[in-house]
């Protein structure tokens, strides 16, 4: 294996294992900033050794063992919490490959991930800081990628993350799933974090792959666990419903060469019917609680419209447009308006939708959002304005950091160029 191939493999392993690594280390050292540093120390060692020795059979266990040794060395060297160190030496063995398998089977690492989410969603932190820090730790996103998902400045997000880690350390926030009022106080942030974690897996911000299925699976698993912890919280069931239904489409979203396949072009026979049934059941549990549908439940209802349509042509776009209108009233945002415009285009025609989109042109939050020119390009193409559509798709391609999505936008631009040449547009 070449050095470049080895580095790419290590990067993939890191993306898969880093959240579990940081969660396990946080349980050990009770400091999320220190845990992240120790995890990166283990990564540096791997980058130095693995190109020469080869990738271990169980790289996650190797990284955990290396990081835990560094943690114990750190505690010993700085003479911190001598009593704690003695306890660690007696009671916490280093992870072996067998230990890692057993922990995974028993759900131990998963529990640590949920505790980590609740820890980083502590009310001492602002809502924005909670979400940014958790995306950093659980999804392995860079500050630049998080800034793009927030539609915010990179420097602002970086400052939030640094301040958040310092606050958690200074306040000695416990590494646990809280109870009672403390749990309810953090619920909205925890739901948002799991939602954004899934979204990053569903449409990766950057890289050579359009999706990160393992991240979607982990977000769905955490959502299911959370819904069991708070069975009377409608939005927990709404979120699970949304993630179940969206997960059902993962295999159909990727072609044989890894290329993206958009919703209307997907082979619906490949959709996972079991996940759809689970999602619809979760949505029904949410409705039975008798409260108005919240943002996650409304998005789940939209996803259900797609899931229940036997073919793309059977989709109830009028209902979807109405659901987006309801969503825009309880959580108004330019992204919701953009999605509503797509639904209106399908229900009532692209002319009406383009009017809505053009009203959003000057919205600051959409200036660097690549899906805005993509949607506008699609509407222009449907109206036969192919040269204008080509320019929008080219702009979208220049803005995205995902290689697969860039190829998709470039292909759409080329199609519009060809149509313009044929039609004299």
Automatic annotation (TrEMBL):
GO function terms (MF aspect): DNA binding; sigma factor activity
Name of the featured protein: RNA polymerase sigma factor
Record's signal peptide: none
InterPro entries: DUF6596, RNA_pol_sigma-70_dom, RNA_pol_sigma70_r2, RNA_pol_sigma70_r4_t2, RNA_pol_sigma_r2, RNA_pol_sigma_r3/r4-like, WH-like_DNA-bd_sf
Chain ranges of the RNA polymerase sigma-70 region domain: 21-79
Sequence ranges assigned to domain RNA polymerase sigma factor 70 region 4 type in this UniProt record: 116-168
Swiss-Prot/TrEMBL GO biological process terms: DNA-templated transcription initiation
Gene3D superfamilies in UniProt: 1.10.1740.10, Winged helix-like DNA-binding domain superfamily/Winged helix DNA-binding domain (1.10.10.10)
Domain named DUF6596: residues: 186-286
